[in-house]
Amino acid sequence: MFNLLLAGVLDLFEAVVCLYCVCIVLVTHFSVCLALTEVPSSIPENVVRLDLSHNSIHHLKPRDFQGASGLRILNLSNNNMEQIDTGSLSGLLHLHELDLSSNRLHVLQYGVLEDLYFLSKLQLRGNPWVCNYNIHYMVYWLRLHPGVRHSGLLCQSPLEYIDERVEDYMDSYNRECPKDRQLSSPDQNQDTELWGTPMELQGEIEEELEPSHLRAPQKYQIFRLA
């Protein structure tokens, strides 16, 4: 009787043999119970859900998921992951859900999310996100994709932003940025006061009379449009 039941189960399920366990999963659902340090190669194209959580995949490299174009759900949580290279998620055009929670990610590099056209859920909690200029890409990407539900995007450093929403940090950064970057040196103010005056015209005439090889390098040029 047991043999008949086992044969029936194997007709519907695929057995995945691990070191000390046997995982019986659906053909379209692939889970891994090894202490992996990198993404398995040759993931079947018909896999729509891939669970790589609770491994030791610290670094995602370009084309790690090459060939896994059918993925809809990808779980990479609890891997102590520190880096995701641009191009590591390329080809996952139909991915709907991505779980990056409980890792050691400080930032997502520019371009990491670009192929995820149909993403609808992104889990980010439990990462030590650093709120500086490098975090801007992820926030801008999320704003350009309002249909993506995301959670857990909180600043963990620097100290003044701990537990603040990254979106709120971005708003405060944009409010303060123009003030910080204003250039108000006395020389610049003096130069602007001379625009269109006889002294400015005199300076241009003197430059024209001076041989070109003796002229000092120009910091800027003024163009007039009639």
TrEMBL record:
It holds the Pfam family LRR_1. SUPFAM superfamilies: L domain-like. Coiled coil: none annotated. The keyword Repeat applies. Keywords: Leucine-rich repeat, Repeat. SMART domains: LRR_TYP. Gene3D superfamilies: Ribonuclease Inhibitor (3.80.10.10). PANTHER family: ANTIGEN BSP, PUTATIVE-RELATED, INSULIN LIKE GROWTH FACTOR BINDING PROTEIN ACID LABILE SUBUNIT. This is Leucine rich repeat containing 17. The lineage of its organism: Eukaryota, Metazoa, Chordata, Craniata, Vertebrata.
